[in-house]
Amino acid sequence: MKTLFVTRAGTRSRTFVGCASLLAAFLFSCGALATDKFAAVPEALQQLVNSNEIPGAVALVATKDGVLHLSAVGKSDLASGRKMKTDDIFWIASMSKPMTSVAIAMLADDGKLSFDDPVEKYLPEFRDMWVDGEQTAQQRVLANAARPITLRDLLTHTSGLGEYRVTDPHWTLAAMVKVLAREPLRFQPGTRWSYSTAGMDTLGRVVEVVSGVPYDKFLQSRLFNPLGMKDTTFWISPSQKKRFVQPIILKSGKLQPAPIDYMYGGAVTDRERPPLGGAGLFSTAEDVTKFYQMMLNHGAANGHQILKPETVVEMTRKQTGNLKARAGMPWGLGFCVVEDPAPMESNMTLSPGTFGHGGAFGTQSWADPTRGIIYVLMISRDKLQPTPDDSVTRRAYQKAVADALDAK
């Protein structure tokens, strides 16, 4: 075995190259920590912890090839006082939607479906849909849908589907979409943009029908395993529960535990709950980053071509035309696209063409192809103001990261 002689206190001693490498790495990391240009990121978030805005946060900044910064501040559980750690697990809520969309896109790449297929081709219960018309206290006027809703409509939130009127924590995906299909559409397909989490759940059921595999197993084998997303799941396991971040809400100036209404009364550990593609996933900052690294790498990761490069382009371009969605942000296929950063303060440091998605409790994930930067912010606080996408916390994170990236 090769050896290296290292002089210490005037004495020559023999050590293994491996040990010397470890020492060099340690010394380098100490130096890096001392001059970390991203140090202002956790400092900014810690100020928000100190002011009782959030209980804690995990912040990550990456490129398509590696992580530039990863930090944790505050606490993950106020009751126990447990400190937040960088591998803590959050409910990522609507950040599940891009992953569901990628599942549909993989089946499109396989030639098993097309984005413009009618949903009724795979789910017959969506045939002959009705559309809400004028309503009074005495009557409700319904009209026939001018055309079938398509998979593209669901991916872009232009289908007219709303949300569930009733549900149950132990219904299957098949049962849930049948209930959804009984409700009239809110508008004619393709004529408006209106956010529908249940519509994305419907896409999860399409994946089951087309692939012949339960939705959670499809995601595990085709996306999570190839990307190494080892902590992304629809159900918190007993071993993961100690890393689960307790959701919080601010009431009367005090942070207190908040329920996850999207669990429909089920527990986060309840495996009888269906795998809901609209907002059902739990994950870590590093796992979410791996997903966006794949997207910035033209659909490739770890020797796997998850998506065709042209499919990545299709998913992350503006798809909603002149339909009004969110301020400065039209929709791609399952991804929100920043077309004009100016209308939203949190987006002002991002380049046009940035794509990603936020979650109901403040989690954020964005990829800027122009700068080659991935932004992931993990918090778990309900009712953020003014919105989860433009919260005080996200504004502070984005500004601190931008200042670090622009520093000479």
Biggest sheet, in brief? 7 strands, antiparallel
Number of strands: 18
Which shape, going by the Cα principal axes?
Answer: globular
With strands numbered from the N-terminus, the spatial order across the biggest sheet is 5-4-3-17-16-15-14
**How much helicity do the residues have?**
25-40%
DSSP strand content: 15-25%
Keywords:
408 residues, alpha+beta, seven-stranded antiparallel beta sheet, 29% helix, disordered N terminus
What do these coordinates show?
- This protein is an alpha+beta fold.
- 29% of the residues lie in helices and 19% in strands.
- It is built from ten helices and 18 strands.
- The strands form six sheets. The chain has a seven-stranded antiparallel β-sheet, with helices on both faces. The chain has a three-stranded mixed β-sheet with strand order 10-9-18, with no helix packed on it. A two-stranded antiparallel sheet has the order 1-2.
- Helix 3 (96-109) runs parallel beside helix 6 (197-211), helix 3 (96-109) packs across helix 7 (215-227) and helix 5 (173-181) crosses helix 6.
- The protein is globular and about 65 Å long.
- 44% of the residues are buried.
- The model is unreliable at 1-34 (pLDDT under 50).
